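Minutes, project check-in
Item: structure for the 549-residue chain
Input as provided by the requester:
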Amino acid sequence: MSSHKQFDHLRIPLEEIVSATDNFSDANFIRHDGFGKEYKGQLLQSGRLVDIVARRLDDKNGIGIKEFWMEVSMLFTLEHQNIVSIVGFCDDGDDGEKIVINKRESTRGSVFNYLRDPSFTWMRRLRICVGVARALNYIHYDEGRDFSVIHRDIKSSKILLDDNWEAKLSGFELSMSQAAAERNRPCQPSKVCGTPGYKDPTYVKTGSVSHKSDMFSFGVVLIEILCRKEYEGEDYLYELAKSHIENGRLYDMVNPGLWKQMDPQSFKIFSEIAYCCLKAEPSERPSIDQILIQLEKALESQQEQENHQEKIEGAISKSLKVIDLFWDELAHLQIPLEEIVSATNNFSDANLIGRDGFGKEYKGQLLGSHELVNIVARRYFDDNSRRESNVFFMEVSMLSKLKHKNLVSIIGFCDENGEKIIINKHESRGNLYDYLRDPTLTWMRRLQICVGAAHALSYIYYDKRRDFSIIHRDIKSSKILLDEQWEAKLSGFELSITQTASRRDRLCVLADVCGTIGYRDPTYVQSGIVTHKSDIYSFGIVLLMMISC
């Protein structure tokens, strides 16, 4: 065929392909798709063996000579690190074999094979999506080319992976080209092509295809990248995903293994761009250059979190040294156990004033600087668990660093003979919860207490003299203590978490959901994502209790 002479240097004799694939043996069979059967093999070229995939056309699938030459033409013309590379082809006459030979990227196969693989990390998935977006950006428009390409069959099985997990877009047999100057105009091909579940519904209804049709299909791939195993095989996954996104419940569909890895900001950016790709009206879908920018932002955000996590893990690896240094710095706050035993009358029942999930609280009087100080000794349960050690350490750490008139004051602590005890100044009036139904707690006093608690929260969230921000995670009326003058004193920092000040507006994903039922932010409970706004929800419950109890 004279029009195809430009490809003659890519022709490979059939006998060489037969030899390379061991006569298309079952042992070398990879898969069967709309184009035909694929076989792996090794082809001798320029004195060296090249790993190949032989795509053997099967016209029974509705793919014919036109599509064969489209595949050859596109792969010959398009050269990009994220597009599969052509090695050659075989055209053995009108009725003979027609085979496209591509470089075999690796034994990894396609993205579809890894969607449910727990080792297929969120970071890796993001990098692959960015790679595919770069390939699409290149085929849709490259300034060095006078034509633009619409793929028309974007799906996860068309995204191959090399040894370094680099994405390689393949399967150009259904693609079509148009002049670069016309690339923003829809085309009216003779038939609607593509794979059910990935095809743009507008394209199916109207027969009109554009680059925005590829964007819809890519949006479905992005949703696949996120989803749980039970959604595998959903023909109209995009409809389900759109419904979940519009109702703010996409996290219900997310693979839980991925959820634990995700930077929330990365997830937010990724899910928003996926949703935009699935818009019913093609003109409302973003172009590929816009998508690429957002996916790169999602990747950058995830990388920042992982870098941050590496720093944290590095710090944990040195935790024993850090803790020793920490205790050395707080040596002036250490109080011998015998003094606390004496102050609380050996933790007598008469001195017991409360208990919670972490331990018991005892009132007492401790001799300090030649005068007796009224104290509360918070005695943590001795279950030798890492969690209890962590909450004790967090409480001491927070109270030793935070100084504000609306926060409870630490006097000292004891970590001796298995006992873990924190000594705070005893606020004489107890906690706010005890007064909610007291008619003598006037509206003016309630307002003043709320303002004091708000001052405390404002301080822990951000103070310009501090390089970290705090999320309390257990705001409730019983954590707001009251001094003799009815001044609010926020307490109970054992469940709190810290963030660097520069990241205080970022979301955090935590393995465990903490806090008190009835006060906890429902979004935090459902998603595992916590922010300062989660504390604000809990504070809102406290405010409602102030007027309704």
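Outcome recorded: Residues 538 and 544 are 10 Å apart (CA to CA).
No further action items on this chain.
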